[in-house]
Amino acid sequence: MSLDAFLALLAFAFATSITPGPNNLMLLTSGVNFGFVRSVPHMLGIGGGFLSLLLGVGLGLGAMLTAFPSLHLALKVLGGAYLLYLAWRIAMSRSIGSGADSGARPMTFLEAAAFQWVNPKAWVMAVSAMAIYTNPQAPFLSMLIVAGAFAVVNLPSVSTWAGFGMALRGFLADPVRLKWFNVAMGVLLAASLWPMLG
C-alpha cells in the first residue's frame, strides 16, 4: 500500500470513527451518567469488537452476507431490536453517579464488543474499508493494514465522546436537565437506525 493510500485509509478510519453513530452516542451518554473511567471498558470493547468484525469481514463474512440475503436481513432485525432496547434504557436513565441505587451501569467490555456485530454503522464501516482499501494481490497483508489503521484511530476517537460526556456532568447534575438529555440521546440512538431502514 502506498503512503498516499495509507493516509487516505487513516482519514477514512478517523472520519468514520469520530462521527456520530450508535457507539459514540452511547459513549457520550455513558460519560455523562457514569464518568470517563467507568466508561473505559465500553470504549475498549468497541475497539476490540470492531477489530474482530473487520477481520471477519476481511476473511469473507461480507461476501457471505451478500450471498445469503436472509442472513443479512436477520442481522438487521437483530441489530435494530437491540439498538431500540438500548435507546429505551438510555431514555429511561435518571441518575448520575454510581447507578447502584437504580441498577444502571455502563456497558461491559464484552457487551460493547458483541454489540459491534449487530451495529449497522460498524458493518457499513467494515465492509466499506475492506472493499476500498484491501489489495487483491496481497489480501491478508492489506487486511491487517486496514485493521491496524482502525486500531490506531478508534480509541482516541471514541474516548473523545466519553470525555465530552464527562465534561457535561456538572451541567447535567440537575435532574430535569439529565432526564431530557437522556431522552434526547435515546431518541437520537433510535433515529440512527434510519439509514439502515433505507
Entry keywords:
mainly alpha, 198 residues
Strand content of the residues, in percent?
Answer: under 5%
Oligomer: single chain
Mean pLDDT: 86
| Cα Rg | 17 Å
Largest sheet: none
- Individual helix count: 9
* Residue windows where pLDDT falls under 50 for at least 5 positions: none
Class from secondary-structure proportions: mainly alpha
Shape: globular
- Estimate nothing, just give the exact number of structural domains: 1
State the distance separating the first and last CA atoms: 34 Å
What's the helix-strand series?
HHHHHHHHH
Annotation, overall tally of beta strands? 0
Kindly state the percentage of residues in helix: over 70%
Give a brief description.
The chain is mainly alpha-helical.
